[in-house]
Write a structure and sequence with these properties.
Radius of gyration of chain B: 19 Å
Low-confidence stretches of chain B: none
Strand order of the largest sheet of chain A: 1-2-3-7-6
Strand content of chain B: 15-25%
Distance between the termini of chain B: 47 Å
CATH topology of chain A: Rossmann fold
Order of helices and strands of chain A: HHEHHHEHEEEHHEHEHHH
CATH class of chain A: Alpha Beta
Strand order of the largest sheet of chain B: 3-2-4-5-7-6-12
Helix content of chain A: 25-40%
Number of domains of chain B: 2
Oligomer: heterodimer
Largest sheet of chain A: 5 strands, parallel
CATH architecture of the largest domain in chain B: 3-Layer(aba) Sandwich
Number of helices of chain B: 11
Structural class of chain B: alpha/beta
Order of helices and strands of chain B: EHEHEHEHEHEHEEEEHEEHEHEHH
CATH superfamily of chain A: Thiamin diphosphate (ThDP)-binding fold, Pyr/PP domains
Helix content of chain B: 25-40%
Chain lengths: 364, 325
């Protein structure tokens, strides 16, 4: 690793902030567990993506950004926690998964594919690596306007193999953009293990080739994830350019909920769950350090449970989109695409008999 | 006021827009210190500096992706593809990210992707392409392709001011071959509006870019030799297409020849023919015909390129076939 040597920053975290780290990790996990319930009730229209065991990566790194300065991140599918830190609401997430008409994308996009520039997150697309050039451009605008802002983009180990990752990080490096690239190495890209993804010994080694700072940390230690990202954010804000961070973690669930993980060696998942769960580790640490008492954590957990219950009720009460809203907003002008001639005056495109009941998941 | 070339008109628009709005900036390969492979951006870096005229690595996906990110934040990037042939390496960024951003994420992408396009210049398979049809199929993008110097300037200014991503194809055969005096003042040309390049009553040619000039030559020839009155409609914008102008010329002449330099199958002409078929079939006195390039990669050697690309004589042949129907 060839990052600058800076003072450890974890000492700067107040007890309140350290409890917040716990809150957001637990919120992420509880929200995803609720989504699993909804998925099993067929209320989630599309696939469901978990970040079980990776919550520390998203939460610790996102905490290193400065929301008061207008820093912006772009999450990946397993960075729900980072969006919650930036201010995304559980009800929004549930509405997205349930394809509701009042979800942030009004039913156009799936799961956590949405953004909000005001709260500081840009929605990803499914083409892995593509957000690196985009966030290079966001950070380029900060540099051009001499704004004191930093951009952060998450990719997985798999995305480091894409052309877009390479082009984006290289361009940002040349331009010395205030950009932090977090590579969340969870061992698998869908079913492909890291050894089939790259011949590099570790992903952080790629930083050398781009002439940028590289850092590697234990992604299941929320404080380590915070610290290493904070150093990169500070470097970016000070004009030191791009940092590539490799956070080492483990994906305990499949690519999505349907994935049975048949490709994972026996015992691997259980071992990580038993020995290296980021929330368990952090709780143990807080208790050992006397930062918090067990019953206080129980109170927080109960609050989170109630919060998710309320969010679920709100989202379930939300309406599905009006069909013809599909034609709104492709362009600024014209704002609405005219309906095709065979849809003139037609409100709903599907007759009851066109949809066997086994197909539909939203005809509640 | 003196006349300026098509290329100078594009450059003049870039200067004026960078002067007007500090959010406008240019990025691309060799566009700064060198002024671009065709010198379209010559002088921009000297005036506006390295910050606003960015020489990039050879990375079309990064150029387009970074432009999108900057555009989200309120900047107005103008990307150069050194040759428009290379836009294919940014295809994913344009079609998956940029074109969908407003619709699926409410993120505006006010940006321009421009580049030297087209053949008749012995450029071979990778310096002659007309890839507009590859993007015509993508909701969320706009496409302009000017044929005249004043349209080149006016459409560039409109493209930069547009709230969505505009692909701006500029024909390299026309760069230094045509000249025109620019209209006075802040000259813009509306996106989505065709222009009647030549009035006529017997037959309509619908075309765009370099073949507008070939269509005009053909129209002159058949007027002299056959006494035919040919109307030439220059689309200028391909997306959104000016359906009104297309329908108006069909209803006027009842015979339509569509001409483009791009290959035939899945080309723009097929789309125009389908629209005419659906909206004004009963106004036609003859089938809609197409004059296009043959369905081959564009070859280098002059006899080969000339044989593949549509020529004035081909258009004359098409007009005569329609007239005799």
């Amino acid at each position: 690793m060839h990052g600058d040597t800076l003072t450890p920053v974890r000492a700067m975290l107040s007890p309140d902030v350290r409890l917040e780290l716990y809150y957001y990790m637990r919120l992420t996990r509880t929200l995803e567990e609720r989504l699993v319930n909804l998925y099993r009730q067929t209320k989630v229209v599309g696939g469901l993506f978990r970040s079980l065991g990776q919550e520390a990566c998203a939460v610790g790194s996102a905490f290193a950004l400065d929301r008061s300065k207008g820093d912006i991140l772009s999450p990946l599918i397993r960075n729900l926690g980072s969006m919650l830190v930036q201010g995304a609401k559980p009800a929004e997430i549930i509405r997205q998964y349930m394809a509701k008409g009042d979800s942030p994308t009004r039913g156009r996009e799936l799961n956590i594919h949405y953004g909000d520039l005001v709260r500081g997150f840009v929605g990803q697309i499914s083409h892995l690596g593509d957000m690196v050039p985009v966030m290079a451009g966001v950070s380029l605008s900060f540099k051009m306007r001499k704004q004191d802002r930093v951009a952060l983009v998450y990719v997985g180990d798999g995305a480091t193999s894409t052309g877009a990752f390479h082009e984006g990080i290289n361009f940002a490096a040349v331009q010395r953009c205030p950009l932090v690239v977090v590579v969340e190495n969870n061992g698998y890209a869908y079913s492909t293990p890291l050894r089939k993804q790259t011949a590099a010994k570790q992903l952080v080694d790629k930083a050398i080739g781009y002439g940028i700072a590289g850092e590697r940390a234990d992604g299941n230690d929320v404080l380590a994830a915070y610290e290493v990202t904070k150093r990169a954010v500070d470097r970016a804000r000070a004009g030191g350019g791009v940092t590539l961070i490799e956070l080492v973690t483990y994906r305990r669930k499949g690519h999505a909920e349907h994935d049975n993980q048949s490709y994972v060696p026996a015992g691997e998942i259980d071992k990580w769950a038993a020995e290296n769960d980021p929330i368990d580790r952090y709780v143990k640490r807080m208790l050992t350090e006397g930062l918090v008492k067990e019953d206080e954590l129980k109170t927080i957990d109960a609050q989170i449970g109630a919060e998710i219950d309320r969010a679920t009720d709100e989202a379930e009460a939300s309406p599905m989109p009006e069909p013809d809203d599909a034609l709104v907003g492709v362009y600024a002008d014209p704002a609405v695409i005219p309906p095709l001639w065979f849809r003139e005056g037609v409100k709903s495109a599907v007759e009851v008999n066109e949809r066997p009941s086994s197909w539909g998941t939203h005809d509640v | 006021m003196s006349e300026i070339t098509y290329l100078e008109a594009i450059r003049e628009a870039l200067f004026e827009e960078m002067e007007r709005d500090e959010n406008v900036f240019c990025l691309g390969e060799d566009i700064g210190a060198y002024g671009g492979a065709f010198k379209v951006t010559e002088g921009l870096m000297a005036k506006y500096g390295e910050e606003r005229v960015i020489d990039t690595p050879i990375s079309e996906a990064a150029i387009i992706g970074a432009a999108a990110g900057a555009a989200h934040m309120g900047m107005r990037p103008v990307c150069e593809m050194q040759f428009i042939d290379f836009i294919s390496t940014g295809y994913d960024m344009l079609t998956n990210y940029v074109a969908t951003a407003r619709y699926r994420a409410m993120l505006p992408c006010p940006m321009v992707v421009r580049g030297p396009s087209g053949g008749y210049v012995r450029g071979g398979p990778f310096h002659s392409q007309n890839p507009e049809a590859a993007f015509l199929h993508t909701p969320g993008l706009k496409i302009v392709y000017p044929a005249t110097a004043s349209d080149a300037k006016g459409l560039m200014k409109s493209a930069i001011r547009d709230e969505d991503c505009v692909l701006y194809f500029e024909h390299k055969y026309l760069y230094r071959r045509i000249k025109e005096e620019m209209p006075a003042g802040d000259h813009t040309v509306p996106i989505g509006k065709a222009r009647v390049a030549r009035e006529g009553k017997d037959i309509s040619i619908i075309t765009y870019a370099a073949t507008v000039w070939k269509a005009l030559e053909a129209a002159e020839q058949v007027e002299k030799e056959d006494g035919l009155s040919v109307e030439v409609v220059d689309l200028r914008t391909l997306l959104p297409m000016d359906d009104e102008a297309i329908v108006a010329t069909v209803k006027k002449t009842n015979r339509v020849l569509i001409v483009h330099e791009d290959t035939r199958t899945g080309g723009v002409a097929g789309e125009i023919a389908a629209r005419i078929n659906e909206t004004c079939f009963e106004w036609l006195d003859a089938p809609v015909l197409r004059i296009t390039a043959a369905d081959v990669p564009l070859p280098y050697s002059p006899p080969l390129e000339d044989y593949v690309l549509p020529q004035t004589l081909d258009i004359v042949t098409g007009i005569r076939k329609l007239a005799s129907y």
